[in-house]
Design goal:
13 strands; 60% strand; 11-stranded antiparallel sheet; elongated
Length: 181
């Protein structure tokens, strides 16, 4: 077992805290467990935040919108399990499941005193849960095929969020084109 820059490493296990820039007391945790040279399993946990931007916090024309200097950061707690498998030297398969809990989201609301628009902190927690399968295949002649399919659900107070798809799919094929000289 070795210790390197706050990481604890064993033959197939790594535990590595990753401090965040703004909040040293918060950190992301990552546990890697490699069962074979071809398979890697990861358990990830993280906490992040987003401070309100100056428009959300400070803009107010007192005609259509008022400022809200009391806005605080949004935050998200994330957990993810990832399995990577190198089926062939040129074919990588990945499966992952995730859960996100988002708190104190900033949304446009109505100021109760003025009746004007104002960015405010929401008290409703948003939950997102999902799973994804992906592949990445390359060929010696330079072509590459990537694809993924995911299933997810994002909800707030047991109601599905609008504009949040249940299914996501992506496919990408790239091919090198030789330059004509």
């Amino acid at each position: 077992m070795t210790h390197h820059r706050h990481a604890v490493r064993h033959r197939w296990l790594t535990l590595r805290p990753q401090p965040l820039d703004r909040q040293p007391s918060e950190s992301a945790r990552c546990v890697n467990l490699a069962a074979t040279p071809k398979a890697t399993f990861k358990a990830l946990y993280g906490r992040a935040h987003r401070s309100p931007n100056s428009y959300e916090r400070d803009y107010g024309d007192n005609i259509s919108q008022v400022a809200n200097p009391g806005l605080h950061s949004e935050s998200v707690d994330t957990a993810e399990l990832v399995a990577d498998y190198l089926a062939q030297p040129t074919l990588n398969l990945r499966a992952n499941v995730y859960a996100w809990d988002m708190y104190h989201l900033i949304a446009l609301g109505v100021d109760p005193l003025s009746g004007l628009s104002q960015y405010q902190q929401t008290s409703k927690k948003v939950l997102a849960r999902g799973a994804e399968l992906s592949l990445d295949k390359t060929w010696d002649w330079g072509a590459r095929l990537r694809g993924s399919f995911g299933i997810q659900n994002a909800e707030q107070q047991n109601s599905h969020l609008p504009n949040s798809p249940y299914y996501l799919g992506k496919i990408n094929f790239s091919l090198p084109i030789p330059l004509i000289t």
